[in-house]
Amino acid sequence: RANIPAQLIQILPQITMTTDEAPSGWGPTLEREMEIIATVHGTWNKRQVKLSSNNREIKAIAQDLRSFAKVLINSQVQSLIIRSDNCTAIFDIWKWRASISLIKEIKQIHYKLEKLGIQIQITLLPGVKNEIADALSTLSRAGNYKLKKKIFQKTCFWMNLNPIIDLFSQNFNNLLPKSMPTV
């Protein structure tokens, strides 16, 4: 492998990537000057669901970079700040150290950034401030709930309600003849 020249001067970050993982999936945002320019979300496969949260967070960051590669290239980004709410993942990526199972993924992150010619800073973002990425990472679970029809009917009867339209249901979980699914 040939040596690739690296810039010694730290460039101020031009774009911020905020990332989060959840047991069901992952979801990052890309921001420039406090404005979201791209979002994406995905789900884990059966094998990945069983991994530790640290492992999933590192895999999420790697997937985020793959997902946003074209945007980063087209925006001619030279420096990126990555924000995550997982201390262990941040430390592992920053120090290039991790368990044997994770080091391959960490190397892929660094090689991808090197290939794109992007410097990174990686920082901790407290979970309470990670609202959008957190919502994206759990998006796959949104709408997977359904009320039991008998309990719904008994509750309506008990409360003396006769609803005719459900404003919050999806096509697969509506209990009334008319529903207003979200777009």
Give a verbal description of the structure:
The protein is of the alpha/beta class. The protein folds into 2 domains: 127 residues, 2-Layer Sandwich (Nucleotidyltransferase, domain 5), CATH 3.30.420; 31 residues, no CATH class. Helices cover 38% and strands 18% of the residues. It has a 5-stranded mixed β-sheet with strand order 4-3-1-6-7. A two-stranded antiparallel sheet has the order 2-5. The protein has a two-stranded parallel sheet with strand order 8-9. Helix 2 packs across helix 3 and helix 2 runs parallel beside helix 4.
Key terms:
2 domains; five-stranded mixed sheet; two-stranded antiparallel sheet; 6 helices; 183 residues; Nucleotidyltransferase, domain 5; alpha/beta; elongated; 9 strands
What is the strand and helix layout of this fold?
Elements: E1 15-18, E2 25-26, E3 29-32, E4 35-39, E5 42-43, H1 46-49, H2 53-74, E6 79-84, H3 87-95, H4 100-116, E7 119-124, H5 131-137, H6 149-158, E8 165-166, E9 178-179
Parallel strand pairs: 1-6, 6-7, 8-9
Antiparallel strand pairs: 1-3, 2-5, 3-4
